[in-house]
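Chain X:
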Amino acid sequence: MLSLYRRSARLDEEPLDVDDTPEPPPRLDRADGYVVWSQPIAKRLPVLRRRRDAICYIPRQYQRFSVQLSGGFEQYMSTLSGKTRSSLKRKLRKFTEVSGGLIDWKEYRTPDQIAAFFPLARKVSARTYQERLLHIGLPADEVFFMSAHTLARDNKLRAYLLFLNGEPISYLYCPVRQRVVVYDHLGYDPSYASLSPGTILQILALKALFAEQQFTTFDFTEGEGQHKEIFATDWRLCGDVFVVRERFVPMLLVVLHLGLDRASGGAGSVLELLKLKSRVRKLVRSIR
């Protein structure tokens, strides 16, 4: 088991260079190290390097997309490519026709509204592949709900639901941090995938955020993807940075993780034959 402190980097943090190490938390205690998700980096960095009494491991380096929320929605739309605008308008038109001429969706921001949002969003989340296969849907525990209640009380939360025939089919949950709206939890009912419900809700949410003029940025956070790229106006190079102490088990897990990421299909087949692949994946899952 690998014990790591975790945090997510802000989009405006100082970019990490080749000789830098992310700022550690105030206390590491007996932890094996720490990980900073989506840390801005100055350029592509070595995946593995030694830093004092630790190793710095950056298995993923990617573009972190965002939308600048200054100006108006129509001005924003004009910055997108003609092909993208045409595709979005076509999807909106199709969904409007299927829903009887009016798109049914709602925004949730107050504590009472968030209390109404959760059971409906959880209903959608239970159908998503993220929850059914990866167990990473919208959290259902009391701690998460109370955190959402506190954020809503402080006007630091925006959540959205898209409906069809009175049933929720897509949700978007976005905390607000220092005037930055964070793309945190999202999902849609896969049986409606042909109607692009996630895209529809994203358009409506951005339109509402532009109308508010309270926030500076919509941050798509870590990872790339076509959905994020088509809506983005900006991007920064970022990476998931693990700083792991030079101890045998943590270093072994990092090496195994690196080996799995770089292994060819042939190497993967050998691991399967040896009945090791599932065991190795269980070991390295704790550092994801």
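Chain Y:
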Amino acid sequence: MMTLSYDVPGPSPAASSTTVDDRSTAFQPVEGGTEHRSGEALLVGAYGGLWLILMGWLLVQWKKQGALGRRVVELEALVQAASRAPTRPAGAARPEQTP
């Protein structure tokens, strides 16, 4: 049987002497960090990406709407052509069936 050991270090002696006031949640800037990214650049990039996605989606929808409109016009023309075709009596033979 396999036993698992979770060795988690306990609080350091220095941490146990701190009070709630010492652990405040105020922002404290860190000097000398290795990563530097501009918040403004990230924000502009995020908005730009969202705008590109939105414009691409709108372009696709516009093309689909145009294709659908053309198909509706085509179908309306077919329906009108079929309604103008002469009707034959129910007992009449088709022209291609005559000997």
